[in-house]
Amino acid sequence: MRIIASGLLLGLTSSCVLAAAASPVDVEVTPDIVYGHKLGMALTMDLFRPKANANGATLLFMVSGGWRSNWTEPAKATAFFQPMLDRGFQIFAVRHGSSPKFNIPEITADVKQAAAFVHANAGRYQVDPKRLGVYGGSAGGHLSLLLGTTAEENSRVAAVVAYFPPTDLRAWVSEDPASNRSFPALRFPPAQAGAYSPILHVTPDDAPTLLVHGDKDALVPLSHSENILAEFKKQNVACELVVIPGGGHGFKGDDDVRAREAMIAWFEKYLVKRAEGAR
Question: What is the reported pTM?
């Protein structure tokens, strides 16, 4: 399969500003936390923390569309996270080494390093590592699934939500620039594609995972979520697929609200209520 459109760039990063509301939010922002260095440059993330009603859970948001990771002024990005902040979640917006400079193997190493940093600095940032989730859309969903299926103990997450994620890269990866002109992050040795295809790494100890996908997605077909859902079920991993009728690669209006509410409910179930029940 060749990727012939640029729809992956419609991942949640591009909607941060478009979806932003003008209303103020009661939130503390810690910008540009350095979680590592690469080629002499800092790898950074921003922390958004509600000033009241914190529920004790933390989320990593994968700032990635087409495996491009763009910086957004925190004051503008805050409104995008407002529904999650209002429900008590604190959020790290994780930026990785961006395509076209870096490819998926290098990008994956970055997000795992970010998760490991949060684990290692849990006390500093008021994080309970057992109540750490990850989410993202499109390329960000792919990276979220990789954290859910391949992370080591020091970067482990407890719940995953992935919007319209690519789950099997084997038909897409090529070192020929002509075959993936729109997505240079896919230019690496095809023999390595399986290592970065979440569908091949599902095991019984994976994090509970919610998939949200439109049935009219022409860029990343619904089958990507359906196929990995089947693998999760085979391994008895808690999982669910929410299909958005008529939804394409990106959601708007009522579809966006439905997807977001499903995501919040998933994280509340596995990061908040489950933890409260264990006390």
Answer: 0.91
